[in-house]
Amino acid sequence: MTASDHRPASLIPGRAVFPHRHLTGIAGLQPHEITFLLDEAEQWIEANRARRKSDRLAGLTVINAFFENSTRTLLSFEIAGKRLGADVVNMHAAQSSVKKGETLIDTAMTLNAMRADALVIRHQSSGAVQLIAGKVDCPVLNAGDGRHEHPTQALLDALTIRRRRGSIAGQRVVICGDLLHSRVARSNILALTALAAEVRVVAPSTLMPAAVESMGVAAFTDFDAALDGADVVMMLRLQNERMDGAFIPSTREFHARYGLTVERLKRARPDALIMHPGPMNRGVEITSAVADHERSAITEQVEMGVAVRMACLDVLTRAERGVPGWA
Fold first, then answer.
1. How far apart are CA 290 and CA 133, in angstroms?
2. Could you please report the per-residue DSSP string of 129-189?
3. Could you tell me which residues are beta bridge partners of residue 65?
4. What is the distance between the alpha carbons of residues 134 and 143, in angstroms, rounded to a whole number?
5. Is the distance from CB of 277 to CB of 191 less than 8 angstroms?
6. Using CA atoms, how far apart are residues 120 and 141, in angstroms rounded to an integer?
7. What SS3 state is found at 202?
8. Rounded to whole angstroms, how far apart are CA atoms 100 and 277?
9. Rounded to whole angstroms, what are the CA distances from 114 to 77, 101, 133?
10. CA distances from 49 to 26, 192, 278, 303, 306 (A)
11. Which pLDDT value is given to residue 14?
12. Is the pTM of this model over 0.85?
């Protein structure tokens, strides 16, 4: 895929620009559809910074059903829904009937019977969100499912890169860390390669997904070599909660080989952007000096997350709201 293959979203009328009822992943989206969502998010950045509320989703109810713990993503979706004027209800797994043995399908049917206008789902099992989407009558947004995907994280990362670097096409993006267990890495690889970035992935062999090169990336086990000429460096934490067994000798050794330090950052371009989806483990995959560096976009990623999620909620509910060209 090259930049010349992109179909300008502005030339596609109405719902044809984004014909999908749900957003369960980046996989299956065309480059112009990804770009469309990024463009839609742009309009909400300044409104969010000014804390201006819209009535775009007034009268609609959004349920955030999180079967897995979250801080940034849950708060971001909640703020996004409220900034758009929706009634937002948060459901936490610890308070749900899932703890009493209810099946995922029964939970989906229960949520559907409540007639929500949109569901935001986070679940520890890969494919769970797609399963729920097939059982409900409203749009479903994936807020992260197992090792599968985290599409809005990839969109907010792409928006951050585009705004800070001017474009995504041609950027050399290095993604380093626990790739094997990371849905963020998968969604970012899908989005960034679709938008014609050059993506390099770096991890110990034990944390490198099999046949990852088939996704259009270059795989490295040597972090220093991968950093050569990097425009963007995206660090990932060790997802210990998803590990069953010893994948690294120690966090100290992992930091020595794969931790981003000020000295190691010098191997990238002088203006390289520093990113991390959070939460960070300072002193493991990234040092405080790098996380707080003037070239760090980590807090900006959080800010872009609200705008991206506002855009996704807006776009996916247009048919329900009878927006001309979408109904």
1. 40
2. HHHHHTT-SS-EEEEEETTTB-HHHHHHHHHHHHHHHS-STT-EEEEES--TT-HHHHHHH
3. 91, 121
4. 16
5. no
6. 5
7. strand
8. 32
9. 19, 20, 15
10. 27, 26, 21, 8, 10
11. 83
12. yes
